Amino acid sequence: MTAPSATSANASIEMPLKRQLKRVERARQFKALGLILPLLVFLLFTFAGPIAGMLWRSVEDRDVRQVLPHTIAALAGWDGKNLPDEEAFAALVSDIQAARAAGTLAVAAKRLNYALNGFRTILTSTGRNLKGAPERGTAKETLTRINPAWRERATWTAIRDAGGPVTSFYLLAALDLVRNADGAIVSAPPDQAIYRNVFARTFLISLSVTVLCLILGFPVAYLLATLPPARSNLLMIFVLLPFWTSLLVRTCAWIVLLQSKGVVNDSLHWLGIIDEPLRLIYNRFGVCVAMTHVLLPFMILPLYSSMKAISPAYMRAAASLGAPPVTAFLRIYLPQTLPGIGAGSLLVFILALGYYITPALVGGAADQMISYFIALYTTETANWGLASALGAVLLLATVLLALVYGKLVQGQQVTGGMKN
Amino acid sequence: MSDLSSLRTPSQRIAWSTTIIVSTLVFIFLIAPILAIMPLSFSSGSYLTYPLPGLSLRWYDDFINSPRWMNALKNSLIIGVASTALSMVLGTLAALGLAQWKSRFKPLVLAFVLSPVVVPGVITAVGLYFFFAPIGLTGSYLGLVLAHTALATPFVVITVGATLQSFDTNLARAAASLGASPLYAFRRVILPLILPGLASGALFAFATSFDEVVIVLFMAGPEQRTLPREMFSGIRENISPTITAAAVILTTVSVILLATLEALRRRNERLKGG
């Protein structure tokens, strides 16, 4: 709002008016914020808080600290070069006996077993064989007699490193990294290193699906953008109906179509193309087909809106200037669709990265994506630290891509590219 | 074909025919699976193969007489309606606020409000599982409604926000200048004009909840299983024709939602005079 130039005559009237206007505007802004606030508070409780909690769990490490508090305290000054002193052994003996009495030894055993395979056995056997309190100064002797593992430096570094209260253990594990006895970060032994593979697979499947969606979606979006509205609106149903159909229905439909006695195999057999049914599902092929089907509308819709904005006059101008159609398409049309291609591809890729249901239902063991492992460690094996760390890595990838996406669609209509 | 006649060179014609052929194949790819599953639900046999041995409604009968499926349908409706109502209240208020709010933090707030759509379902589900379990909200209707509301509200904010963008604020000012109280102006002037936007927002919210399965997988107890959740375990174990009947019912709901949305869109265009 532009104020008229203040002359000395009307300044006395204008100033209160200006201030009044400002006050009204400020009240309006407060009211606006007040309308947004309920949703912000709600999302804090049902979305941001839970995710922050998950991120915290990926670095939290309190189990061992709670079960073996005196041992952790005794190890605080340990240099890690030789075996710890008698005091640490004595602390461990009393901690183990207390934990056994309280029934919490298994909690520490589970966490330590992640760090050092076989630790569960070491700890439970030690707990079982500790009879009464050993005499002063004989704790080390007692423990090493029960289990020679207590003579290993690695056993003790595992306890110290699991002492918390925070750890990089799970986050490193999610990237197939471990800390060795000297505290240096090294690659995990090959038989335990699976997550880089899983991430690579997740990335590869998402990329394949994105490329497939782009190849299939581009001509469709072009057709829809070029046809007169009456006809393209009708054809749009072919895109919107699958879009609105339940994910479960579509996944189920693909299983029915692609199974060994399914429609596709039967038709191919009937046509005499194959003798034996092809394996079309519960493998990578099935995952890619079903995911492409689910995500294709997310490619077509942004492509369509970017193509719709391209004036046909450009192509006519190119033609009138003597450009052959291929040149006109490559040099004039295609560059203008790039924002749409970028937005659609990023959207499909982001959504594919986090997919769980479709691969879980139509994929084999070697086609499970990162979400599967997050779910597995949450509900089946209850390794919540690792589930959270894998989740943190997936979240980071998603957020980074979403930021790029946000930059890309900035200026275009702010719809989040979703169902619109 | 008016489109073909305007194309002059043979290569343009080839390109256009290729576009049509490829698009037709893609349309078949998109629609065929949904169409293929439907007749199977009317089969009289128990195998999911063509040709159908005969027609019957036995699988629908199975669905209706199964306490498991009917409970799932009931749960889907309860959770869907409740989270739609809650997300409409929160989302509409926020959209109204966002339309008036001027701040450099606005893009940040908007990104936060829309983020539940982008964050992978498994991450939200795991976070909620850890967060809700200690306070007794897992295995409860309330927990699921709250979680689904968080997922559905962004769609309400987007849809209602888009309607407000095309809303002429002078109308509200005119009402105020004619002596209408803000609430009266909202009820008599603003509400009727943004009602179609609200209705599409509600449809999006309901569809989001009705189709959601990842959070239900993590959070629902046996009592709260929804239709997609039952379908998930059904597909995992052994696809029976009853699942295809459930699929047809779900698809019918989608078609009704889609048709309603389309009707709203047409009405809106007609009102705009476009």
Automatic annotation (TrEMBL), chain A:
Keyword Membrane in annotation: yes
Gene3D superfamilies in UniProt: MetI-like
A biological process term (GO) from this entry: transmembrane transport
Coiled-coil blocks: none
Compartments where located: Cell membrane
Recorded family membership: Belongs to the binding-protein-dependent transport system permease family. CysTW subfamily.
SUPFAM superfamilies: MetI-like
Residues that span the membrane, as ranges: 32-56, 203-225, 237-260, 281-301, 313-334, 346-366, 386-405
Bilayer topology: Multi-pass membrane protein
Domain ABC transmembrane type-1, residue spans: 199-405
InterPro entries: MetI-like, MetI-like_sf
Keyword Acyltransferase: no
GO cellular component: plasma membrane
Keywords for this protein: Cell membrane, Membrane, Transmembrane, Transmembrane helix, Transport
UniProt superkingdom: Bacteria
Name of the protein this chain belongs to: Putative spermidine/putrescine transport system permease protein
UniProtKB/TrEMBL annotation, chain B:
PANTHER family (alphabetical): INNER MEMBRANE ABC TRANSPORTER PERMEASE PROTEIN YDCV
GO biological process: transmembrane transport
Location (main, coarse): membrane
Topological category with respect to the lipid bilayer: Multi-pass membrane protein
Residues covered by the ABC transmembrane type-1 domain: 73-261
Protein name per the record: Putative spermidine/putrescine transport system permease protein
Pfam families: BPD_transp_1
Domain of life of the native organism: Bacteria
Transmembrane segments: 20-42, 77-96, 108-132, 144-164, 193-219, 239-261
Organism: Bradyrhizobium daqingense
SUPFAM superfamilies: MetI-like (SSF161098)
Places the protein is found: Cell inner membrane; Cell membrane
Keyword Coiled coil: no
UniProt KW keywords: Cell inner membrane, Cell membrane, Membrane, Transmembrane, Transmembrane helix, Transport
Homology family: Belongs to the binding-protein-dependent transport system permease family.
Cellular component terms (Gene Ontology): plasma membrane
